[in-house]
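Page 42, continued from yesterday. The earlier attempt failed because a stray header line got pasted into the input along with the sequence. Redoing it now with the clean sequence only.
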Amino acid sequence: APRRPRPAWALLALVLAALLAAVSAKENEEEAEAISKAANAGISIMLLGSVAFMMGLFYLVNHPDPEMVKYSWQVISSTISIFAAVLLFQGVNGIIEATLLEGASEGFELVVSMVHFLAWFSGLQLALAYITGALHDGKVEWTHEKEEKMERQIKCYAVLMGHITGFAAINAFGVLQQQVPRTPYSVFMVAPGAWFVVYLLSQVTNHIRDSISRADDGTIDKAEALWDEETEETEDDIVGLAVSFLVVQTLRFAIGGVLPNAEGEEAEETLSQHSNRQVFKLIIIGIVLVFGEFLRTIYIRFTLPRLTPQMRNVIMMIFAWCMLFGLDWFISANFFVSEHGMKKQVVLALVVTSLSMTLIFFLEKIADLPITGDQIDHAIHSVVRALGILIGFSWEKAFDTAVISVTESVEVLPEPVTKLLLAVALAALVVPAWRHFILPSILIYDKQDEEEEEQFEEGEEGGEEGAQGGEGEAGAKKDLAEPLLPTVKAAPKRQATSKKLAGGEDKALKAKCQGYEKQIKALEQRNARLEASLSDFVVELAELQKMADILKRNPTSPSGSPVRGQP
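This time it went through. Structure tokens are written below.
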């Protein structure tokens, strides 16, 4: 018969099992308590930080300096547009990766990525053509209200689809960058190759737009001109976004020794091992490039129609990417060595936002100094725009991490479907508010910037021609000009523009001058209309006088016979 176990051994086994269960439960409880504390701490930090951040935005958009208010609204607009673009692109790209690229070869992945980019690029052209009415039959009747609505609508979709297409270009050429030989030269050559491809596509689409615009009546109307202008500006932004990212990928590879993946991400163990020396190298390269663009704006007057704006966009965005990834290296290596989740991304975004807004504040103070001329002010404004892009990029990384965290916790639907639905829902909530309540202010600021840039370019052509032209027109407009503004001999531009007042007085003086200029133009137009009406009135009066003279010489009765007794 089999030997029965003794009760003592059975009791000992039960005691041991109970002890192990208790220890395991204690460990699980401690682990659950630690996780709960960490989650509670994270939620608390987000709650307090969100309140402080929103109040900080209120301070910025109500700042006493109008320029700081303008930059604050531009930063908010840039962040929102990048947020919506990233969500929509990653939602669509996630579906493509799940359905087409699971287990696919590198060549097939490259082809799919390029087709995806071309689809967004083509969709951009068609969407802007449809919104502007360039594809409609007949002329578009423009009213002031319709024009404002059209500008807001096309700006919204041009910026949004431009960012989506830019991220699609980053993904396509980033995949190519992963497949070339791992040498700095080979990796770098993808960037100019991407520039050439996008530039070639833009030239082809420019020819197509011109052919379509002239196909109906041989001329380009206002809607067709708006289509071409907005599309070219968006294509320049695509070049800047894609080429700058690929260049910075090369810099990170050359400095850090590891090429990040196509989305710019590094392994956590690699991210925490970057030294402060590497951080300094990456950031200083971005600063040197933007300083070179600063000097070019001041001293080099030669520009190319499409290439110069694209080069400016590339350099400014290289500066933004270098600052972002440099600060990411620094924070990961010194403060978040083992944790690289949402908390680190939010801290990075807050640090970048604080530093950028501080730099914008001091740069604006420098621009207000009497010693700075129009050239330096123009260059400073370019740097400020780059800092605004940097803030948008930093929050884009946080948004990306947030979307991934949410989709991983949802088990009802597949992760790619959850990401796409989340992207569509958030975009449907955010984009209309951005379009109706933020973009109108951005359009006003953009028009002011365009007018300042046009005045800057006209001033660079020299003041002598303007002075001679003013002397030639002085006799024709003497009666109009003298009561408003006395004739002052034109001075060289440097003397006229560099002696500025400090701070708000300078801005107020500029606003008054612009107001006077508008009044002069309005009065000139009114005077021209009055002169035309007066000449017509004089002609009619002369004709009436002739008729009166005839009647005096040959008076007649109502029946047509001469009146008796009249001479």
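Notes: The chain is about 80% helix and 0% strand.
Reminder to self: strip header lines before submitting.
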